[in-house]
Amino acid sequence: MLIGITGTPGTGKTSVTRLLEEDRLYQVIHLNELIREEHLYSEVDTHRDCVVADMDLVYRRVLELQDRSNSLTIVDSHLSHHIADIAIVLRTSPERLKERLEKRKYSVDKVRENVEAEALDIILAEAVDWCEKVFELDTTGKAVEGTLKDIQRIIKSLQRGETEELENIFRPGTVDWSYYEFD
Ligand code: ADP
Ligand code: MN
Q1: Cα separation of 30 and 179, whole Å?
Q2: Ligand 1 nearest-atom number relative to CA 8
Q3: Residue 80 pLDDT exceeds 90
């Protein structure tokens, strides 16, 4: 089973999956690194300072890398919901996300683009379209360890095949940034 940890850049995917890796219970793939290292992209968008991933190539490579002795593979990336069966979507309030991305020295345009995408639930909507099951987690005002615990609970429920309670707690649509006013 492929579990995608997805969400707008800056919502905490890589931080939390690095902690999850320490358990050594699951295979974790940091997809953005893999895409860059193995050139799994079709274009370099110099204007937006990013690469355009070739998702067919990416999916094939992830299946190749998938450790057969491990029933679960966790994929960290804002693209992971395109290839995963299950998506865990991390959310962060637009105000908080803006601060995080500014700290990262993203350009003004790139900060705005990502904050807008977060405010408009873009990745959540895509995940709901593409994946069998979607869990939505608000990370605003939480420590990384708190988000880690939520993700561990979800993974354990998937392993047991008893997800009903957590699907209800982390139901898509529980996070609402509609109050947010764009600049
Ligand atoms: P992403 O991989 O989604 O782009 P990163 O993990 O690289 O995000 O960066 C997220 C930043 O937000 C890190 O500096 C992290 O410490 C911080 N952060 C604050 N609260 C949380 C939380 N609850 N969960 C995950 N990250 C958080
Ligand atoms: Mn990341």
Answers
A1: 33
A2: 3
A3: yes
- What is residue 180's DSSP assignment? P
Q: Please state the pTM of the whole predicted model.
A: 0.96
Q: Does the pLDDT at position 50 exceed 90?
A: no
Q: What is the band of 141 on the pLDDT scale with cuts at 50, 70, 90?
A: very high
Strand order in the sheet with 73-76: 27-30, 73-76, 2-6, 86-91, 133-138
Q: Which atom of ligand 1 is nearest to the CA of 140?
A: 23
Paired strand residues for 91? 138
Q: Which residues lie with the beta carbon below 6 Å from any ligand 1 atom?
A: 7, 9-16, 100, 139, 142-144, 146-147
Residues with CB under 5 A from ligand 2 (ion): 13-14
For residue 28, being part of any structural domain is answered with: yes
User: Alpha-carbon distance 3 to 116, whole Å?
Assistant: 25
pLDDT at 183 over 80: no
Who has greater pLDDT, 127 or 182? 127
Residue among 15, 21, 90, 151 to mutate when testing ligand 1 (max atoms within 8 A of CB)? 15
Task: Assign residue 23 the CATH number of its domain.
Answer: 3.40.50.300
The domain in which residue 11 lies consists of 2-169
Number of domains making up the chain? 1
Q: Is the pLDDT of residue 41 over 80?
A: yes
